[in-house]
């Protein structure tokens, strides 16, 4: 056999440019075909001692040679474009140069969505009747969780690959620039497996075999993926762990594992990975009960739970709760990397330790109500109770921005506000105890904060005016309009009183004439009765005869029937 073997029109990985693959005893090399402008193509080399296994399988671009590499990284390299006839030749080459066997992998093309899942080496494999339907490298799995008792969800968008989407309401995030950087094309973001049944827990242990507990197959599969995938780091790399932290958004109790480059929220059902570089702002906000404090973390890009995005983390701490904490950092690292902003040991309230670590590791400024911030007229707290649609929350008017804290917080900077409008609920009367605050932004949607206490109006208006925020008071305009309507109503009432008095006088003068008329009517009625008796013996009047001749069966309309009959003059005989 020759000193080397060459295969033409071979693609390396996902490269769209074909090239030549050369194999020899020391390893292999691939070089892309030169482009039309004469520039040389990319090259790739791989030493023989780094190759672990070889596989042959059918793919979209012909047949593929897959090489699994040695080492902890467990990478693999793929070369597409082989023909069916190249199998025997390639198998002989690998056996001669590298003393390795070429394994054939059968691929299922049935298109079934039911089969068997397994984790082999560093891949999640889905098999249909023993043949490979598809496989997913575990290193591409960004997160995994138990969607239900029999369902496991896997997310494939790693936070490092996401682009900021300016979804936190900040004009300073570069929203226009980030929109132009959106990823192109389709991308797999999530996959779910339905795995029913149970398996024995701890079946590998020989002790207490009779007392082995069972767990769902979905949970066992989920834990196996976590053990293989790059979802967390080893315990020695962690800086500190905060146990059972109450998180309001997304709701639950989570363990917060803080690492040098990111943190993980580990809950009973969901795990989240948050890069410190994705943290855009930090807020420490006291609750009005003086017992709890809220810690709000703005994220861009947000964390995901299926199709739901969470651009904010909202944590809640007890103000008086303290803890002793020791960081897994040496003094040299604290001084050099963190510029002495951290301490190795803390004995402080829990919320202070957490906020300090978030502030230092993320490099963001911590925002809290200051001495000149808004104070409620009712209780002196820096927040107001109000609603957005049907959701209750707390509105914090801060020095340069306002934030509404609830399940989905709303953040607005004052320099992004076109104007704020004070209005009553549906044009309510002056006795209304609440009002609405409508905030119109320059570059964002309009927000309406409803059912604010009426006594907070003056303090809130003064706060916005002091920060040069344009204020429009529809409440005052409505009050003036109502006063004008009330004055007009009073004038109308006086006119109606005058009119009623004059009408009453007229009605007092008429009774004499009316009574005389009634007496005349009585005389007329008696004379009509006499006429009726006299006329009943007549054969008919000329008018009735002419009516019968002209109109046939009908004698007239209802209006005509209602007309009074003309009286006949009595003649003396």
From TrEMBL:
Subcellular location(s) of the protein: Nucleus; Chromosome
Q: Which GO terms describe its molecular function?
A: DNA binding; histone binding; nucleosome binding
Top-rank taxon of the source lineage equals Eukaryota
Regions of compositional bias (Acidic residues) in chain numbering: 489-500, 518-538, 546-561
In terms of Pfam families, this protein maps to: PH1_SSRP1-like, POB3_N, Rttp106-like_middle, SSrecog
CDD domains documented for this protein: PH1_SSRP1-like (cd13230), PH2_SSRP1-like (cd13231)
> Per UniProt, which keywords does this protein have?
Chromosome, DNA damage, DNA repair, DNA replication, Nucleus, Transcription, Transcription regulation
Low complexity bias: start-end ranges: 166-178
Disordered: where is this region? Answer: 165-185, 486-573
- CC per GO annotation: FACT complex
Q: Which SMART domains match?
A: Rtt106
SUPFAM superfamilies in alphabetical order: PH domain-like
Q: Which residues form the Histone chaperone RTT106/FACT complex subunit SPT16-like middle domain?
A: 381-474
Q: Which GO terms describe its biological process?
A: DNA repair; DNA replication
Q: Does the keyword Ligase apply?
A: no
Main function: Component of the FACT complex, a general chromatin factor that acts to reorganize nucleosomes. The FACT complex is involved in multiple processes that require DNA as a template such as mRNA elongation, DNA replication and DNA repair. During transcription elongation the FACT complex acts as a histone chaperone that both destabilizes and restores nucleosomal structure.
Family to which this protein belongs: Belongs to the SSRP1 family.
User: What name is this protein filed under?
Assistant: FACT complex subunit POB3
Source species taxonomy: Eukaryota, Fungi, Dikarya, Basidiomycota, Ustilaginomycotina
